[in-house]
């Protein structure tokens, strides 16, 4: 049993929710509104609501397993339990890990884009990645200090983000009038339906899911959370609920302020663009301030949680570590990979890569629950079955739309998937060879 001092060092429910929302309320809402508008037109608010519905079904599998078997590598452990410590579990665990690396890159580039918006330099091919690197380095430094600093900063910044985004949304809706809400039903005179109809709307939902998928990082907190069997489920439900309300209010305000073409034209900084006609230059600065806090705190929270996932993968022998006895290896490796992706890919490519990898992993999680864990856990099988159907329903249209408009990103995703599976095949064979050698050495020593 842990002492009171050890218990105090663990994350509280508030700290867990703060870390979860810290990852969720970041680049997701600040960078994705414009990209979703390209696909879903003026149905953006409904796309985010539909995304919350898909995530609600998905969260069930994570809650049921992680509450029963809490650990620092939540997703990796679910996959290991479902498929065994082999190629499949390792590959889809890495899909999740890579998708979270991409999420960190999205946060970092969004930080740079919004910070440069007041100076008209938001499209700079040099300064956006430079500031992205600065953001990742700063977030890594905070994580190196320790858990208490991470939790303390996450709790404080989560409050700032929730209040700031909520205030922006309410003020925006007040400025545009109650007609902003009526447009959810009527569409308004200037409504712009998705160019590709239902296919485009479903593809837009796939991107919206990125704004919620940060809830999965809560499953990585098991060993670091007080009373994880109760608090993991509570934390996930609270985080998703808070984000759903904020996203709905904010997207209603944005679509009430800007037309769809205007949102698409400013897709990487749509929230700042929407604030200007409503509140002038001070509105832009306020949006930038909230975006900076949201993205930096999101990076701190994400690095904390994702490095825990890498820790578990190292313990499982699925990924390598650094040579020698380097401290905090998983954190440093995670930060280094985020630096690379933040400088190589733009926001649209990062979001698309992350969506395809995450949804593929999510399907594997639910399939494992239905086919492999149905006799080991108590859960309603129909829920993960519906989650699989919903994931496929949004993933297939998204891939179709990307093949039409951005084949390069689809090819990169396929290459990444192939490299992950090949590397896991090599790691599993090497691990098996080492086990055989140890067994052989043991038999020889017994004969002597």
What's the short story on this structure?
With about 450 residues, the chain is an all-alpha fold.
Note down, in words, how this protein is organized.
The chain is mostly helical and 448 residues long. The chain has one domain (10-437): Amino acid/polyamine transporter I (Up-down Bundle). It is built from 18 helices and no strands. The protein has helices spanning 4-9, 13-24, 27-40, 44-68, 74-83, 87-116, 127-145, 147-176, 179-186, 198-210, 228-257, 260-265, 270-279, 281-315, 329-344, 347-371, 382-405, 407-447. Helix 3 (27-40) packs antiparallel against helix 10 (198-210) and helix 17 packs across helix 18 (407-447). It is globular, with a radius of gyration of 22 Å. The protein starts with a helix and ends with a helix. The model has no long low-confidence stretch (mean pLDDT 84).
Please tell me how large the radius of gyration is: 22 Å
Number of helices: 18
- Could you give the order of the helices and strands? HHHHHHHHHHHHHHHHHH
Helix content: over 70%
Q: How far do the termini sit from each other?
A: 43 Å
Helical/strand content category = mainly alpha
CATH topology: Amino acid/polyamine transporter I
Count of discrete domains: 1
Strand content: under 5%
Overall CATH architecture: Up-down Bundle
CATH superfamily: Amino acid/polyamine transporter I
Can you identify the CATH class?
Mainly Alpha
Question: Which stretches are low in confidence, meaning pLDDT under 50 for 5 or more residues running?
Answer: none
Shape: globular
Mean pLDDT: 84
Count every beta strand, where a strand is a DSSP E run of 2 or more residues. Answer: 0
Largest sheet: none
């Amino acid at each position: 049993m842990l002492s009171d001092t050890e218990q105090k060092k663990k994350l509280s429910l508030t700290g867990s929710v703060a870390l979860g929302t810290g990852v969720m309320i970041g680049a997701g809402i600040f960078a994705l509104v414009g990209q979703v508008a390209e696909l879903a037109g003026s149905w953006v608010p409904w796309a985010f609501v539909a995304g919350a519905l898909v995530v609600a079904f998905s969260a069930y599998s994570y809650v049921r397993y992680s509450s029963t078997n809490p650990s620092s590598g939540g997703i990796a452990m679910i996959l290991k339990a479902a498929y065994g410590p082999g190629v499949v579990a390792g590959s889809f665990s890495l899909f999740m890990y890579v998708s979270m690396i991409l999420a960190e890159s999205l946060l970092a580039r969004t930080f740079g884009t919004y910070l440069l918006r007041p100076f008209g330099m938001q499209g700079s091919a040099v300064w956006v990645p430079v500031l992205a690197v600065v953001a990742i380095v700063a977030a890594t430094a905070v994580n190196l200090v320790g858990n208490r600093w991470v939790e303390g900063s996450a709790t404080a910044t989560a409050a700032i983000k929730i209040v700031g985004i909520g205030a922006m949304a309410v003020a925006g809706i007040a400025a545009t009038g109650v007609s902003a809400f009526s447009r959810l039903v009527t569409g308004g005179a200037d409504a712009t339906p998705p160019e590709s109809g239902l296919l485009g709307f479903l593809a837009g939902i796939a991107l919206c899911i990125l704004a919620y998928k940060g809830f999965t990082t809560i499953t990585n907190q098991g060993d670091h959370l007080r009373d994880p069997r109760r608090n993991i489920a509570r934390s996930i439900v609270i985080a998703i609920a808070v984000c759903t309300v904020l996203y709905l209010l904010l997207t209603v305000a944005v679509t009430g302020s800007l037309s769809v073409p205007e949102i698409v034209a400013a897709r990487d900084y749509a929230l700042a663009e929407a604030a200007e006609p409503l509140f002038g230059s001070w509105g832009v600065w306020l949006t930038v301030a909230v975006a900076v806090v949201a993205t930096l705190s999101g990076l701190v929270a994400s690095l904390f949680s994702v490095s825990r996932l890498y820790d578990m993968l190292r313990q499982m022998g699925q990924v390598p570590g650094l040579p020698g006895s380097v401290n905090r290896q998983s954190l440093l490796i995670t930060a280094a990979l985020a630096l690379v992706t933040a400088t190589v890919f733009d926001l649209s490519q990062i979001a698309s890569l992350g969506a395809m990898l995450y949804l593929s992993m999510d399907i594997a999680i639910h399939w494992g629950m239905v086919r492999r864990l149905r006799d080991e856990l108590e859960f309603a099988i129909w829920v993960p079955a519906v989650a699989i159907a919903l994931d496929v329903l949004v993933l297939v249209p998204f891939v179709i739309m990307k093949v039409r408009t951005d084949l390069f990103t689809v090819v990169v995703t396929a290459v990444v998937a192939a490299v992950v599976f090949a590397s896991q095949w090599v790691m599993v064979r090497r691990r098996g060879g080492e086990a055989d050698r140890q067994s052989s050495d043991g038999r020889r020593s017994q004969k002597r």
